[in-house]
Specification:
Layout: H1 11-28, H2 36-59, H3 62-87, H4 96-121, H5 133-155
Helix pairs in contact: 1-2, 1-4, 2-3, 3-4
Length: 165
């Protein structure tokens, strides 16, 4: 699993940034029947997805990251909800395909955020802020032990029960 140093490199952040770009382009077309406040809220919700991923990533602890990921996921849900409401308007029936694509992008963000959050909740990683020299040394020993164990198992006969087939 890759380790990311910058939020800009995260695939889920890139997806969220694309969602914002798509929503912004859609709103810029001034769809009929949408109030300015509705359009503004849709834009803010779409922007909130990538911003909360970034803020959580930069916080330095897994617990804070998780909290911001769930906020980001909530914002993706808000985008979808608003798009669902838009679909109900008769004035924009010719934009249903675009709206459907936007909903799919928001749902993709939501799924990716959920998968990442689930993965983080099931890990022992406490976050960058907690990586002192002692923790780094322990992680290095664990990694080296795993590599040594793999080397030993690789030297066993191919029919040995410890060898994976």
């Amino acid at each position: 699993m890759p380790t990311y140093q910058r939020f800009e490199d995260l695939p889920v952040w890139k997806e969220a940034a694309n969602l914002y770009d798509e929503v912004n382009a859609f709103i810029s077309g001034k769809p009929p029947g949408l109030s300015r406040s509705f359009s503004d809220q849709l834009e803010r919700a779409a922007l909130s997805v990538s911003n909360n991923i970034a803020e959580g990533f930069e916080r330095g602890t897994t617990n804070e990251l998780l909290a911001f990921l769930y906020i980001a996921r909530g914002s993706a849900g808000e985008v979808r909800s608003m798009l669902c409401l838009m679909e109900r308007k008769k004035e924009i029936s010719n934009l249903r395909f675009q709206i459907s694509n936007l909903k799919a992008s928001a749902e993709s963000c939501s799924r990716q955020i959920r998968a990442w959050a689930d993965n983080l909740q099931n890990s022992d990683i406490k976050g960058q802020r907690h990586l002192n020299d002692s923790v780094k040394a322990r992680e290095k020993r664990i990694k080296e032990a795993g590599e040594f164990q793999k080397m030993i198992i690789d030297k066993l006969p191919s029919d040995h029960p410890l060898r994976k087939k």
